Amino acid sequence: MALLDNAEVADEGAPPDALEFIHDLRWDDIPANVRHHAQRSLLDLIGVAGGGRKTVNARIVCDFVSAHCGPGDKGARLLFDGRRVSVPGAAMANAAMIDALDAHDGHRLAKGHAGAVILPSLLAFSTELAPCSGAEFMARFVLGYEIAIRAGITLHASVDEYHSSGAWNALGAAAIGARALGLDSDQTAHALGTAEYYGPRSPMMRCIDFPTMVKDGATSGAHAGVTAALLADSGFTGAPASLIDDQPGAGIWSDLGVTWRMAEQYLKPWPVCRWVQPAIAAAARIRDEIAGRKIDRLVVETFYEAARLTTTHPETSELAQYSLPFPVAAMLVHGKVDAQTVTTGLLDKAVTGLAERVEIEISPSLSAAFPGRRSARLVAVLYSGEVIETPVVEAPGEPETPLSDTDLVNKFIDLMTPLTGQLKAVSIAEMAATLEERESVGPLIEAICEFPEGLS
After folding, report:
1. CATH code, 18-269+439-449
2. What pTM was computed for the model?
3. I need a labelling partner for 130 at 20 to 30 A (CA). Which of 98, 247, 304, 354 fits?
4. What is the pLDDT of residue 159?
């Protein structure tokens, strides 16, 4: 399946414009395959939030919003924590929680992540300010993705610099807020324009070169988008959203409601930057063949952007998640790359020792294929002189090679169990899987906001 070959018409007639789409979309209008993608992303994001909750990054931001963003009359709650804070504060902290563990979904052409902001923003509005049914919650979820991803593709087509995801997923957050608050068309336009204006056009490659807790700008994107909708509800005006209205986006918005960008999402098997995952997949491919044999050096051929992720001895989780040598070595040494690998496993000498022997070469052909394709090839040179090579491979989880539903559930359970225990994790998974059938999203929100037994 090509990236753009998922067009499925829900109803005959011309596609709606963005404002109509935001307010008129219904869960039953969405094609079945897209609804299934939405259910998978919902489960995956909740699991990643659970995995990210114990990180230093999440703790700092949660404590910050608890201290400085009081809930007022109607607030929202922090995931796997329970504290009530303001609606923008909850969106900000819960986005930080998901973004803290780089295991969440993404879109190739948007070159980033919608879900890390879409779900936290949706939860923030749906807790006390605008509670809703499960079907309405899921419709808001999908419309947020559709607006955000298109804004991201438009942004990258209109500027040369590579901006963080917060620059464009803020518009998805604002769209959800406009729907939840019942804004009229003018107010919705102002919300989108304000979200774009206030969204963080952060230079993403700066965080690639210097990995820190700012990550992909999700915290600021969520805060900007949610705040924009709340301000518009009070009469605040914003400049027109150029990412929706202007020429660089011509053709990107004309198929809204026909081509579903939600169905083009990739889902990650490993909690590290997507750019390094092809190299991990290559390592997994030859691990059994080189098990127990001494490796002299490893040569990874990949695209330019991935080649900048060179850390071998990560001192922080962020450095581990934005490293190519470290997770490749972990896959070869342990046969897995999981949340523990990039949090509590940073001092694993067997892994860091092998990471030192990883050489990275830039492939012109693989670089030219980015971002539509992200690929790598691995060459293992053994002390015996034998050379073992892989073909060029991509990471599993792309739209063409999706993770199975079983794989996703197992990933969810693995991420959640250390925090909530397995029985609670299974219960949450079952609630999420049937959410569209439920009269209220409240029980799911309650379940994922309770203070968990595994958090000290």
Report:
1. 1.10.4100.10
2. 0.95
3. 98
4. 87
